[in-house]
Amino acid sequence: MTEVTEAGQPSRPQSVAEFSDAACDVISPAAWDFISGGSGAERSVAANLRAFDNLYVAPRMLRDVSHVSTASRLVGTEASLPVAIAPMAYHGLVHPQSEAATARAAKTAGVPFTVAMLSGTPVERIAESGADLWFQLYWLRDRGATKELVSRAEAAGCQALMLTVDVPRLGRRLKDQRNGFALPPDVYAAHFRGEAAIGAQRASAEGSAVASHTTVMFDPSLAWSDIEWLRERTRLPLVVKGILTREDALMATRSGVDALVVSNHGGRQLDGAVPGLTVLPEIRAAVGDTVEVLVDGGIRSGSDVLKALARGADGVLLGRPILYGLAVGGESGVDAVLSLLREELETDLALSGCRTVGEAAHLTTYEFSASSSTGTASW
Q: Which residues bind glyoxylate (predicted)?
């Protein structure tokens, strides 16, 4: 993971964001496009990053920050940071230790790890890490397979279910189509059998084998009644990921969910979908404290986590930087990403006058654009 400088001293990324450049050097070009790319012209990918770049915090002074805590509680799980690792498919694309290494690093860091339905490692093996696990679902055409996955997640000790609702079909990820992207033979959907497991390895006339695979498996008829069906069939807290409007947020609360993830899927679904950070305040205002509200998309630093908290989030999901760390150094690379994030967040909490994660919710934030600025919230 490290390089040696001319002075003979090891160098390493000094920020979470720097892992992106290091990872680009070691991930194959097609896998890099699959992980870092988005749909269409990638407007939403860029907008996610820009939303954080354009948001500023007004720090408070004389707050006695001699003791600062980053501890949090997310969806019933005690966490050392207000951060959970987002569900991401096929970690084996970037490192042979795959999801098992990521989970071990999550255990060390004390943050929840969300096992993707399309994980390359089965949940039972990931559970051997001892990490606090959540389990992500997509809505499958095979209702029996969905029930089986819920049972496996419960039996493996997962502490929450996360249903991703913004993929009735896969977004048009043009880089994957141009690359004719398909999984290598040693990477497959480990929670399934037969063609459902290896379908994303098959070359596709559409260009992307992953897109063809999900078209066959995912059910576009998902509706609010299905959320209620799932709610009735699990004892686990239920998280719905992919909400971007106050109307859908309210519908989710009426369906009995425990938490929302405000998300445009990292810019990988509808190109032009609004960044989660932008709509976060209105969704928080709509649901109040009836459910927990998380956000993802574009988070690259502890400062970004602070901004999300100030805008109303209870916590964040961290995605691509985790895979970048895994690519660069396996388990130790993910550990380094999470350690840097902790260091950045603790420093930024202190510099903004916050002794706890909860106090960040009272910070004033300002959005700046080329032509105007708008202040929001107050303490």
A: 138, 173, 263, 265, 268
